[in-house]
Amino acid sequence: MKQPKWTLLLLCGLLLTTLTACGQNDNKANNSAGNKSAASGKETTAALKDVKVVLDWSPNTNHTGLYAAKEQGFYKEEGLNVDIVLPGSGGADAMVASGEVPFGVSYQESVTQGRTQGVPLVSIAAVIQHNTSGFAAPVDRSIKSPKDYEGKTYGGWGSPVEEAILKSVMDLSGADVSKVKFINMGEADYFTAVKRDIDFAWIFYAWTGIEAELRGEPLDMQYVKDYSDKLDYYTPVLVTNEKTIESDPELVKAFLRATSKGYQYAIDHPEESADILLKAVPELDKELVVASQKWLSPKYQDDAARWGEQKREVWQNYSDWMHERKLIESPLDTDRAFTNDFLPEQ
Q1: pLDDT of the residue at 159
Q2: Which among 266, 276, 275, 273 is positioned nearest to 307, based on CA atoms?
Q3: Dihedral over Cα of 238, 43, 67, 261: its sign
Q4: Domain segments of the chain: what residues?
Q5: By CB atoms within 10 Å of each CB, which of 4, 45, 50, 201 scores lowest?
Q6: In CATH, 8-129+233-337 is 3.40.605.10
Q7: What's the pLDDT at 46?
Q8: Can you identify the CATH homologous superfamily of domain 133-231?
Q9: Which residue ranges does the record assign to the SsuA/THI5-like domain (predicted)?
């Protein structure tokens, strides 16, 4: 599962790809029969409308509902042959924004920053209702609260948002972020880094936290949402682009009807849906996938009226926070950044 990060280079690549690919992708949603998925290896069916959805990262339990919708035939019921593909070098956001693919997995933070720079992404569903990310440390580091970050070494990727979130939770706890040493983790994973040269890092508990449990390496974790409502944002989300919404709204509705059923299946059947993900991506660790799925399935919908529902105040709160900390140059037009209009009724 991708750690929370995005850089200036990624955003520049996103904008460049959007500009250069504009006007070249009118027929991308209808791929020729026989095209195969990088993630699943399944051949398309000519009688169905071929549609691609690009993942944000390698397949994991954030994506189980997509695989369940495909395996259970929910996409076929909507007349769709959905191809689940891995992101190219430019990233999933660039592929969706440019129209290369109509749907993808993204994050509220990157949609927010992209839209303030003219990137035409629109969030159409929240995959998980509440932010499951936070700062984690092995229990032997005795980090029980943000105050304990002082004097410790944080491992990250050099993104401005990391320090801003770290500063926010420390400020709210009366702690001083200037007393934290920052190290770039590079390509090292969390478990390697904490044994090498860091004390804590930003993780998603549903994957790295569960893996720590299975390894017998317990963590102390501070979820960022517990320190401010502004940090309880949607991560990840499903996105499309403005052109797809304008030109083929029925496709967006059909895709979400089936995808909603897929995530509902994963909510109701964690172990069976874990098996579906493992069938599609057999190289994943079975024990980790099953344990992660059991932990995450109840959190897809959580306290929302329906899976995928997004609240305006969540988008407004987080974009206000980003603007206050100069992570975005201008305020977000919140009502254009997301929509619930294509979700099926309860």
Answers
A1: 86
A2: 266
A3: positive
A4: 8-129+233-337, 133-231
A5: 45
A6: no
A7: 55
A8: Periplasmic binding protein-like II (3.40.190.10)
A9: 60-272
Beta bridge partners of 185: none
- Give the bridge partners for 50, in sequence order: 81
- The percent of the chain in helix, strand and coil, each rounded to the nearest 5, is 45, 15, 40
DSSP 146: G
pLDDT, tens digit (0-9, with 9 covering 90-100), for 297-344 = 999 999 999 999 999 999 999 999 999 999 999 999 999 999 999 999
**What proportion of the chain, given as a percentage, has pLDDT over 90?**
83
Residue 36's DSSP bridge partners are 43
Over the stretch 160-201, which tens digit does the pLDDT of each residue have?
899 999 999 999 999 999 999 999 998 899 999 999 999 999
Residue entry with tokens 């129209």:
99
CB-based contacts of 54, cutoff 8 Å, min separation 6: 85, 86, 87, 92, 95, 96, 101, 103, 104, 105
Q: Is 133-231 the same fold as 8-129+233-337?
A: yes
Q: Which two tokens stand for residue 143?
A: 């980090």
269-296 burial: b if 16+ Cβ within 10 Å, else e: bbeebbbbbbebbeebeeebbbbbbebb
345 token code pair: 């009724």
SS3 state at 256: helix
Q: What is the spatial distance between Cα 263 and Cα 302, in angstroms, rounded to a whole number?
A: 12
Q: Helix or strand or coil: residue 264?
A: helix
